[in-house]
């Protein structure tokens, strides 16, 4: 049976609010929770970007049942993979085994801030391969020295390493990333409901794995208000990840999405009060073979109301699919 998650969207809510939402999402029945990990929001109208790892540490203590996950962290630019290994190990211990480290090759928006430039996609994927190898080695709790093309680790050890390490989900988008990354990851992460990705992953990956997707919705009692909010805060979504990965600032996203109309957003994101319509927007991921789907309720303004009034009946509809 498909598991349904709740997205802690760090770009649209402050840290205290995110912890409160995480608690409520667990109470109303979501199976897992994922957190974005950004240094900047995509658009200034979103207005937030707290440090995801601090938020997740608090969420681990504020919840007791839901699985937790980064969706996703880039362990190659803003963070050295040795630091990510330590953070992920600590999260696994704090959450008592509920944490999955979701990783990807990153977006310029978040990674260029450290002043190291922005490599091409092939190099970013090569860097991600090395990063995963380092993280896996450090999660054994053994002393690690690693001399790679992009990273060096010198006599490092994660002293508080959870038994069995930390499961790693890997974001993939096509044949190249599948070939390089599927053998290294435990679980598939993808933002497009493409059955070919699931099949390609299974062909290259041994053993059982989760296939974890994400779907934005904009619930509001007023359909026009729902569309307006989705357009204001999520019109960047129309660019697709091949474009979005290379835009460096919120101003760049605003410029790239300036001609996206509200009706364009409404055609790709379910908006309004109709819970059957909102639930049905998840079906392409189910048909493609995804085992886990995280829901994004767009915007902070209706977030608490969504959790208090809408989440439970929406989950009933989702599980009925």
Provide structural commentary.
With 321 residues, this protein is α/β, with parallel strands linked by helices. The chain has a single domain, classed as TIM Barrel (Alpha-Beta Barrel). The protein has helices spanning 15-28, 52-62, 81-94, 108-111, 121-138, 175-181, 195-204, 223-234, 241-244, 250-256, 262-268, 275-280, 283-288, 303-320; strands spanning 3-8, 32-35, 67-70, 99-103, 144-147, 152-156, 168-171, 187-189, 211-219, 270-272, 292-297. An eight-stranded parallel beta barrel has the order 1-2-3-4-7-8-9-11, surrounded by five helices. The chain has a two-stranded antiparallel sheet with strand order 5-6.
CATH class: Alpha Beta
Find the CATH topology.
TIM Barrel
Q: What is the CATH architecture term?
A: Alpha-Beta Barrel
H-E order: EHEHEHEHHEEEHEHEHHHHEHHEH
Helical proportion, percent range: 40-55%
Integer tally of domains: 1
Taken as a percent bin, the fraction of beta residues is 15-25%
Low-confidence stretches: none
The CATH homologous superfamily? Luciferase-like domain
> What spatial order of strands do you see in the largest sheet?
1-2-3-4-7-8-9-11
Mean pLDDT equals: 96
């Amino acid at each position: 049976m498909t598991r349904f998650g709740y997205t802690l969207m760090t770009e649209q809510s402050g840290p205290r609010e995110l912890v409160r939402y995480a608690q409520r999402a667990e109470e109303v029945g979501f199976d897992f929770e994922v957190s974005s990990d950004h240094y900047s929001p995509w658009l200034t109208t979103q207005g937030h970007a707290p440090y995801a790892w601090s938020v997740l540490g608090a969420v681990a203590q504020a919840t007791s049942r839901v699985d937790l996950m980064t969706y996703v962290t880039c362990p190659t630019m803003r963070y050295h993979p040795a630091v990510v290994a330590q953070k992920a190990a600590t999260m696994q211990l704090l959450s008592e085994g509920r944490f999955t480290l979701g990783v990807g090759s990153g977006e310029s928006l978040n990674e260029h801030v450290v002043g190291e430039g922005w490599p091409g996609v092939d190099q970013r994927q090569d860097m991600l391969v090395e990063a995963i190898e380092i993280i896996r080695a450090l999660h054994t709790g053994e002393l690690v020295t690693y001399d790679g093309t992009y990273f060096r680790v010198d006599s490092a050890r994660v002293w508080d390493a959870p038994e069995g390490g930390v499961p790693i989900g890997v974001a993939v988008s096509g044949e190249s990333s599948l070939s390089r990354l599927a053998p290294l990851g435990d679980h598939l992460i993808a933002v497009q409901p493409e059955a070919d990705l699931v099949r390609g992953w299974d062909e290259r990956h041994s053993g059982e794995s989760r296939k974890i997707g994400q779907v934005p919705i904009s619930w509001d009692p007023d359909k026009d208000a729902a569309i307006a909010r989705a357009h204001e805060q999520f019109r960047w979504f129309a660019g697709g990840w091949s474009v979005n990965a290379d835009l460096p600032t919120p101003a760049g996203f605003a410029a790239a999405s300036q001609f996206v109309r509200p009706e364009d957003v409404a055609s790709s994101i379910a908006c309004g009060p109709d819970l059957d319509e909102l639930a049905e927007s998840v079906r392409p991921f189910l048909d493609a073979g995804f085992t886990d789907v995280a829901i994004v309720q767009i915007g902070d303004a209706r977030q608490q109301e969504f959790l208090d009034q809408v989440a439970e009946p929406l989950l009933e509809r989702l599980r009925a699919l």
